[in-house]
Amino acid sequence: MSMHGVAKSSPLSLSPARRGVREKCYQLDGVDERVDLDAAAAANTIDWDGSKAWSVSVWFKNPGTSYAALWSVCSTVGGANRFMEVASFYSGATGKIRFYGLASTTGGLTLTSPAPSPAGGSGRVDIADSDTNGILPNDGNWHNVILTVNSAADTVAGLNVYLDGLLAGYAKTAALTNTWDFLKVGCRVQTNNTSLTQFTPGLFSKLSIYSSVLSAGQVANVWAGGHSTDERLLTPAPVNFYRFGNDAAVFPAAVDIGTGGDDGAGVNMEAIDVATDQP
To answer: I need a surface site. Which of 94, 106, 163, 225 has the fewest CB within 10 A?
Structure first.
């Protein structure tokens, strides 16, 4: 099957990018543990400013069935409704992935006309496991979500959500803007970094940020048939690239091995939270 002309990708054979892959990840408790990558947000690569285009990829496993923010950003503005996130949750037995982004109390970052696909609302795209290319997020497997955004106003399918290498949802971008200053993995951040909620219990392997909208083929290269990849060897390479539990000389540093050099850190974590698991 395909969505607006994009065909399903097929698993890729292991490439040279597989070299240098590390075996560790972070295991978060869903209570107060998270990874702060605020410097990456402050670098302004992923601002929704009406002109920037970018992509964010995250690898995760077993996030539970409650609403859990996989990653989120917010601005320095005090209002709670100025944030953006990618989240996982279940409605009964139905697993879902959600994009959610607000620029004001009533202003969603995506529009309702045309309707977001496959479902959603103002500032929201919802993808159920039964939808085309949907996934069961808590099924014991590693999964990858890639969000691509062209923040120019009124861009049809300016926002795309890829699940495990396949296009699963999209929406039209709104004529609203937000600049982001705080980035968290494993929880929702709001209100000038003072409100942290929707913590995720589960494993996180990698997060990467690109300064362009990845094509379907480039997304498939990141997915690589479900295998860990050294994304620095891909074209384009990520601006920010974090391999959680790896690359840091001192725990709990989260070292940026991309070109950005925007290091972060695990918060409220212990050394035991570094697990041996990888996609």
So the answer is: 106
